[in-house]
Amino acid sequence: MNKDIVCSGIRPTGNLHLGNYFGALRNFVKMQDEFQCFFFIADYHSLTTHPTPENLYNNARQILVEYLAAGLDPEKSTIYLQSDLPETIELYLFLNMNAYLGELERVTSFKDKVRQQPNNVNAGLLTYPTLMAADILIHKATKVPVGKDQEQHLEMTRTFAGRFNNMYKHEVFPLPQAYNFGNDLVKIPGLDGSGKMGKSEGEGNAIFLNDEPGVIRKKIMRAKTDSGPTEMNQTKPIEIENLFTLLKVVSSPETVEYFDDLYNRCQVRYGDLKKQLAEDMVNFTQPFRERIAELSSNEEYLKRIMDQGKEKAHESARRTIDEVRHVIGYRN
Ligand code: TRP
Q1: Architecture field, domain 5-187+298-328
Q2: How far is the CA of 93 from the centre of ligand 1 (A)?
Protein backbone atom coordinates (compact mmCIF):
# COMPACT_ATOMS: atom_id res chain seq x y z
CA MET A 1 0.00 0.00 0.00
CA ASN A 2 1.18 3.45 -0.91
CA LYS A 3 2.08 5.47 2.18
CA ASP A 4 0.64 8.72 0.93
CA ILE A 5 -2.27 10.19 2.80
CA VAL A 6 -4.92 11.95 0.77
CA CYS A 7 -7.28 14.56 2.14
CA SER A 8 -9.84 16.76 0.47
CA GLY A 9 -13.20 18.33 1.09
CA ILE A 10 -16.04 20.08 -0.64
CA ARG A 11 -17.95 23.02 0.77
CA PRO A 12 -21.64 22.13 0.91
CA THR A 13 -23.37 24.93 -0.93
CA GLY A 14 -26.05 22.88 -2.65
CA ASN A 15 -26.19 19.94 -4.99
CA LEU A 16 -23.15 18.75 -6.85
CA HIS A 17 -23.00 19.31 -10.57
CA LEU A 18 -21.13 17.71 -13.42
CA GLY A 19 -18.27 20.15 -12.90
CA ASN A 20 -17.79 18.91 -9.33
CA TYR A 21 -17.96 15.35 -10.52
CA PHE A 22 -15.35 15.57 -13.24
CA GLY A 23 -13.28 18.21 -11.45
CA ALA A 24 -13.06 16.43 -8.11
CA LEU A 25 -15.30 13.53 -7.19
CA ARG A 26 -14.32 11.17 -9.95
CA ASN A 27 -10.72 11.65 -8.86
CA PHE A 28 -11.57 10.94 -5.25
CA VAL A 29 -13.17 7.70 -6.29
CA LYS A 30 -10.09 6.58 -8.19
CA MET A 31 -7.75 7.44 -5.33
CA GLN A 32 -9.54 5.26 -2.82
CA ASP A 33 -7.87 2.09 -4.04
CA GLU A 34 -4.37 3.46 -3.92
CA PHE A 35 -4.10 5.70 -0.88
CA GLN A 36 -5.34 6.16 2.61
CA CYS A 37 -8.03 8.76 1.98
CA PHE A 38 -9.92 11.27 4.09
CA PHE A 39 -12.82 12.96 2.35
CA PHE A 40 -14.89 15.38 4.30
CA ILE A 41 -17.78 17.78 3.99
CA ALA A 42 -16.50 21.27 4.77
CA ASP A 43 -19.42 22.46 6.87
CA TYR A 44 -17.31 24.77 9.02
CA HIS A 45 -16.15 26.65 5.96
CA SER A 46 -19.80 27.12 5.01
CA LEU A 47 -20.32 29.44 7.94
CA THR A 48 -18.35 32.22 6.25
CA THR A 49 -21.47 32.94 4.22
CA HIS A 50 -23.96 32.55 7.12
CA PRO A 51 -26.33 29.79 5.97
CA THR A 52 -29.53 29.17 7.93
CA PRO A 53 -29.39 26.10 10.22
CA GLU A 54 -31.75 24.26 7.85
CA ASN A 55 -29.61 25.00 4.83
CA LEU A 56 -26.42 24.07 6.64
CA TYR A 57 -27.85 20.70 7.64
CA ASN A 58 -29.62 19.87 4.41
CA ASN A 59 -26.70 20.83 2.21
CA ALA A 60 -24.25 18.79 4.25
CA ARG A 61 -26.54 15.78 4.16
CA GLN A 62 -27.02 16.15 0.43
CA ILE A 63 -23.26 16.22 -0.19
CA LEU A 64 -22.90 13.02 1.80
CA VAL A 65 -25.58 11.36 -0.30
CA GLU A 66 -23.93 12.56 -3.49
CA TYR A 67 -20.43 11.53 -2.36
CA LEU A 68 -21.76 8.04 -1.85
CA ALA A 69 -23.81 8.08 -5.05
CA ALA A 70 -20.69 9.04 -7.00
CA GLY A 71 -18.84 6.02 -5.66
CA LEU A 72 -17.01 7.06 -2.52
CA ASP A 73 -16.80 3.91 -0.46
CA PRO A 74 -16.92 4.22 3.32
CA GLU A 75 -15.11 0.88 3.61
CA LYS A 76 -12.16 2.21 1.64
CA SER A 77 -12.09 5.88 2.63
CA THR A 78 -12.79 7.85 5.74
CA ILE A 79 -15.80 9.99 4.93
CA TYR A 80 -16.74 12.48 7.59
CA LEU A 81 -18.27 15.78 8.50
CA GLN A 82 -15.73 18.53 9.25
CA SER A 83 -17.85 19.67 12.19
CA ASP A 84 -17.58 16.18 13.71
CA LEU A 85 -13.87 16.80 14.15
CA PRO A 86 -13.30 19.63 16.65
CA GLU A 87 -9.55 18.81 16.68
CA THR A 88 -9.54 20.72 13.41
CA ILE A 89 -10.55 23.90 15.22
CA GLU A 90 -7.85 23.44 17.80
CA LEU A 91 -5.22 23.13 15.10
CA TYR A 92 -6.81 26.11 13.31
CA LEU A 93 -6.22 28.18 16.45
CA PHE A 94 -2.60 27.10 16.72
CA LEU A 95 -1.94 27.81 13.05
CA ASN A 96 -3.63 31.20 13.30
CA MET A 97 -1.01 32.29 15.84
CA ASN A 98 1.54 32.16 13.05
CA ALA A 99 -0.60 33.30 10.14
CA TYR A 100 0.06 36.91 9.27
CA LEU A 101 -2.49 39.53 8.34
CA GLY A 102 -0.51 40.64 5.30
CA GLU A 103 -0.27 37.20 3.74
CA LEU A 104 -3.93 36.41 4.46
CA GLU A 105 -5.06 39.67 2.91
CA ARG A 106 -3.13 38.91 -0.26
CA VAL A 107 -5.05 35.68 -0.96
CA THR A 108 -6.96 35.93 -4.23
CA SER A 109 -10.12 34.23 -2.95
CA PHE A 110 -10.21 36.66 -0.02
CA LYS A 111 -9.81 39.68 -2.28
CA ASP A 112 -12.65 38.33 -4.45
CA LYS A 113 -14.91 38.00 -1.41
CA VAL A 114 -14.09 41.54 -0.29
CA ARG A 115 -15.25 42.74 -3.68
CA GLN A 116 -18.35 40.49 -3.74
CA GLN A 117 -19.56 41.06 -0.19
CA PRO A 118 -18.06 44.31 1.16
CA ASN A 119 -20.53 44.30 4.05
CA ASN A 120 -19.53 40.88 5.32
CA VAL A 121 -15.75 40.75 5.38
CA ASN A 122 -15.56 38.58 8.49
CA ALA A 123 -12.45 37.10 10.11
CA GLY A 124 -13.59 33.62 9.03
CA LEU A 125 -13.15 34.67 5.42
CA LEU A 126 -9.73 36.10 6.17
CA THR A 127 -8.63 32.90 7.90
CA TYR A 128 -10.28 30.53 5.42
CA PRO A 129 -6.80 29.33 4.35
CA THR A 130 -5.75 28.51 7.93
CA LEU A 131 -8.89 26.44 8.46
CA MET A 132 -8.20 24.65 5.20
CA ALA A 133 -4.60 24.07 6.28
CA ALA A 134 -5.88 22.62 9.55
CA ASP A 135 -8.18 20.23 7.62
CA ILE A 136 -5.22 18.91 5.70
CA LEU A 137 -2.53 18.93 8.38
CA ILE A 138 -4.72 17.31 11.03
CA HIS A 139 -4.27 14.05 9.07
CA LYS A 140 -0.69 14.85 7.96
CA ALA A 141 -1.94 14.50 4.41
CA THR A 142 0.65 14.57 1.65
CA LYS A 143 -1.62 14.69 -1.38
CA VAL A 144 -4.58 16.99 -1.80
CA PRO A 145 -6.81 16.59 -4.84
CA VAL A 146 -8.07 20.09 -5.62
CA GLY A 147 -8.80 22.22 -8.63
CA LYS A 148 -6.63 25.07 -9.88
CA ASP A 149 -8.55 27.64 -7.85
CA GLN A 150 -7.36 26.03 -4.61
CA GLU A 151 -3.66 25.94 -5.38
CA GLN A 152 -2.91 29.20 -3.63
CA HIS A 153 -4.57 27.87 -0.48
CA LEU A 154 -2.43 24.77 -0.68
CA GLU A 155 0.66 26.89 -1.04
CA MET A 156 -0.32 28.61 2.20
CA THR A 157 -0.83 25.25 3.85
CA ARG A 158 2.80 24.46 3.04
CA THR A 159 3.87 27.84 4.39
CA PHE A 160 2.01 27.28 7.67
CA ALA A 161 3.27 23.71 8.00
CA GLY A 162 6.87 24.67 7.36
CA ARG A 163 6.64 27.62 9.73
CA PHE A 164 5.28 25.41 12.49
CA ASN A 165 8.00 22.80 11.98
CA ASN A 166 10.67 25.51 12.08
CA MET A 167 9.32 27.29 15.08
CA TYR A 168 9.14 24.13 17.20
CA LYS A 169 12.14 22.39 15.63
CA HIS A 170 10.15 19.24 14.93
CA GLU A 171 9.13 17.80 11.60
CA VAL A 172 5.52 17.45 12.68
CA PHE A 173 3.88 18.19 9.33
CA PRO A 174 4.75 17.01 5.84
CA LEU A 175 4.35 19.63 3.10
CA PRO A 176 1.29 18.57 1.09
CA GLN A 177 1.09 18.79 -2.68
CA ALA A 178 -1.83 19.29 -5.01
CA TYR A 179 -2.58 16.06 -6.76
CA ASN A 180 -4.68 14.89 -9.63
CA PHE A 181 -5.06 11.24 -10.29
CA GLY A 182 -3.64 10.43 -13.70
CA ASN A 183 -3.82 14.12 -14.60
CA ASP A 184 -7.28 13.68 -16.00
CA LEU A 185 -9.17 16.50 -14.36
CA VAL A 186 -11.74 17.50 -16.92
CA LYS A 187 -12.87 21.08 -16.78
CA ILE A 188 -16.57 21.13 -17.50
CA PRO A 189 -17.86 24.27 -19.22
CA GLY A 190 -21.15 26.00 -18.44
CA LEU A 191 -24.25 26.03 -20.61
CA ASP A 192 -24.30 29.82 -20.79
CA GLY A 193 -21.20 30.18 -22.93
CA SER A 194 -19.01 30.69 -19.87
CA GLY A 195 -15.86 28.69 -19.33
CA LYS A 196 -16.94 27.02 -16.16
CA MET A 197 -19.91 25.05 -14.93
CA GLY A 198 -20.88 26.47 -11.56
CA LYS A 199 -23.73 27.31 -9.30
CA SER A 200 -22.82 30.93 -8.89
CA GLU A 201 -22.93 31.41 -12.65
CA GLY A 202 -26.72 31.31 -12.50
CA GLU A 203 -29.61 28.89 -12.81
CA GLY A 204 -29.47 26.91 -15.98
CA ASN A 205 -25.71 27.04 -16.34
CA ALA A 206 -25.09 23.79 -14.50
CA ILE A 207 -26.37 20.23 -14.82
CA PHE A 208 -26.75 18.77 -11.34
CA LEU A 209 -26.24 15.09 -10.63
CA ASN A 210 -29.80 14.83 -9.37
CA ASP A 211 -31.53 16.95 -12.03
CA GLU A 212 -34.63 15.26 -13.39
CA PRO A 213 -34.56 14.29 -17.09
CA GLY A 214 -37.08 17.01 -17.93
CA VAL A 215 -34.92 19.64 -16.27
CA ILE A 216 -31.80 18.43 -18.07
CA ARG A 217 -33.55 18.57 -21.46
CA LYS A 218 -34.84 22.06 -20.78
CA LYS A 219 -31.45 23.36 -19.68
CA ILE A 220 -29.66 21.90 -22.65
CA MET A 221 -32.23 23.12 -25.18
CA ARG A 222 -31.71 26.62 -23.74
CA ALA A 223 -27.92 26.45 -23.84
CA LYS A 224 -26.31 29.33 -25.62
CA THR A 225 -25.45 28.90 -29.32
CA ASP A 226 -24.62 31.23 -32.20
CA SER A 227 -26.29 31.47 -35.61
CA GLY A 228 -24.20 28.66 -37.05
CA PRO A 229 -20.95 28.17 -38.95
CA THR A 230 -20.52 30.10 -42.18
CA GLU A 231 -17.17 28.78 -43.35
CA MET A 232 -15.95 25.25 -43.80
CA ASN A 233 -13.78 23.96 -40.95
CA GLN A 234 -13.97 27.20 -39.03
CA THR A 235 -12.91 27.45 -35.39
CA LYS A 236 -15.82 27.05 -33.02
CA PRO A 237 -16.83 29.97 -30.83
CA ILE A 238 -16.63 29.26 -27.10
CA GLU A 239 -20.32 28.43 -26.56
CA ILE A 240 -20.25 25.85 -29.36
CA GLU A 241 -16.93 24.42 -28.23
CA ASN A 242 -18.55 24.04 -24.80
CA LEU A 243 -21.39 21.93 -26.21
CA PHE A 244 -18.87 19.70 -27.95
CA THR A 245 -16.89 19.35 -24.72
CA LEU A 246 -20.03 18.18 -22.94
CA LEU A 247 -20.83 15.85 -25.81
CA LYS A 248 -17.34 14.33 -25.50
CA VAL A 249 -17.97 13.63 -21.84
CA VAL A 250 -21.34 11.90 -22.12
CA SER A 251 -21.67 10.66 -25.73
CA SER A 252 -19.88 8.08 -27.83
CA PRO A 253 -16.87 9.11 -29.95
CA GLU A 254 -18.96 8.34 -33.06
CA THR A 255 -21.61 10.84 -32.01
CA VAL A 256 -19.00 13.52 -31.40
CA GLU A 257 -17.43 12.84 -34.77
CA TYR A 258 -20.81 12.90 -36.50
CA PHE A 259 -21.69 16.37 -35.24
CA ASP A 260 -18.16 17.66 -35.63
CA ASP A 261 -18.24 16.62 -39.26
CA LEU A 262 -21.61 18.31 -39.82
CA TYR A 263 -20.24 21.45 -38.17
CA ASN A 264 -17.19 21.47 -40.39
CA ARG A 265 -19.40 21.19 -43.47
CA CYS A 266 -21.69 23.97 -42.18
CA GLN A 267 -24.60 21.57 -42.04
CA VAL A 268 -25.00 21.23 -38.32
CA ARG A 269 -28.42 21.82 -36.79
CA TYR A 270 -27.99 22.88 -33.20
CA GLY A 271 -31.46 21.61 -32.32
CA ASP A 272 -30.43 18.07 -33.30
CA LEU A 273 -27.10 18.34 -31.53
CA LYS A 274 -28.80 19.51 -28.35
CA LYS A 275 -31.42 16.76 -28.49
CA GLN A 276 -28.71 14.16 -28.75
CA LEU A 277 -26.66 15.81 -26.00
CA ALA A 278 -29.72 15.98 -23.75
CA GLU A 279 -30.54 12.28 -24.22
CA ASP A 280 -26.96 11.20 -23.63
CA MET A 281 -26.77 13.46 -20.61
CA VAL A 282 -29.96 11.96 -19.18
CA ASN A 283 -28.52 8.48 -19.65
CA PHE A 284 -25.18 9.42 -18.17
CA THR A 285 -26.75 10.88 -15.02
CA GLN A 286 -29.37 8.16 -14.62
CA PRO A 287 -27.34 5.95 -12.22
CA PHE A 288 -26.57 8.99 -10.04
CA ARG A 289 -30.25 9.90 -9.80
CA GLU A 290 -31.14 6.34 -8.86
CA ARG A 291 -28.49 6.03 -6.17
CA ILE A 292 -29.25 9.48 -4.81
CA ALA A 293 -32.94 8.59 -4.46
CA GLU A 294 -32.11 5.29 -2.82
CA LEU A 295 -29.60 6.73 -0.35
CA SER A 296 -31.71 9.79 0.50
CA SER A 297 -34.39 7.65 2.04
CA ASN A 298 -31.98 5.54 4.06
CA GLU A 299 -31.54 7.65 7.15
CA GLU A 300 -30.17 4.82 9.24
CA TYR A 301 -27.44 3.95 6.75
CA LEU A 302 -26.37 7.59 6.41
CA LYS A 303 -26.13 7.96 10.15
CA ARG A 304 -24.06 4.81 10.42
CA ILE A 305 -21.66 6.06 7.75
CA MET A 306 -21.29 9.40 9.50
CA ASP A 307 -20.65 7.75 12.88
CA GLN A 308 -18.10 5.40 11.41
CA GLY A 309 -16.33 8.25 9.57
CA LYS A 310 -16.29 10.38 12.66
CA GLU A 311 -14.61 7.66 14.65
CA LYS A 312 -11.95 6.91 12.06
CA ALA A 313 -11.21 10.61 11.47
CA HIS A 314 -11.05 11.23 15.18
CA GLU A 315 -8.42 8.56 15.65
CA SER A 316 -6.15 10.14 13.08
CA ALA A 317 -6.80 13.69 14.32
CA ARG A 318 -6.24 12.80 17.95
CA ARG A 319 -2.76 11.48 17.21
CA THR A 320 -1.78 14.68 15.45
CA ILE A 321 -3.24 17.05 17.99
CA ASP A 322 -1.58 15.21 20.89
CA GLU A 323 1.77 15.55 19.18
CA VAL A 324 1.13 19.20 18.32
CA ARG A 325 0.12 20.09 21.87
CA HIS A 326 3.17 18.39 23.26
CA VAL A 327 5.53 20.12 20.85
CA ILE A 328 3.97 23.52 21.63
CA GLY A 329 4.50 22.99 25.33
CA TYR A 330 1.20 21.72 26.68
CA ARG A 331 2.45 18.81 28.69
CA ASN A 332 -0.43 18.03 31.02
N1 TRP B 1 -11.65 25.31 -0.09
C2 TRP B 1 -12.18 24.16 -0.75
C3 TRP B 1 -13.20 24.60 -1.80
O4 TRP B 1 -13.81 25.63 -1.66
C5 TRP B 1 -12.85 23.22 0.23
C6 TRP B 1 -11.91 22.75 1.27
C7 TRP B 1 -11.94 23.08 2.58
C8 TRP B 1 -10.81 21.86 1.06
N9 TRP B 1 -10.93 22.46 3.22
C10 TRP B 1 -10.22 21.71 2.35
C11 TRP B 1 -10.28 21.19 -0.04
C12 TRP B 1 -9.09 20.89 2.52
C13 TRP B 1 -9.15 20.38 0.14
C14 TRP B 1 -8.57 20.23 1.42
O15 TRP B 1 -13.39 23.88 -2.74
Answers
A1: 3-Layer(aba) Sandwich (3.40)
A2: 18
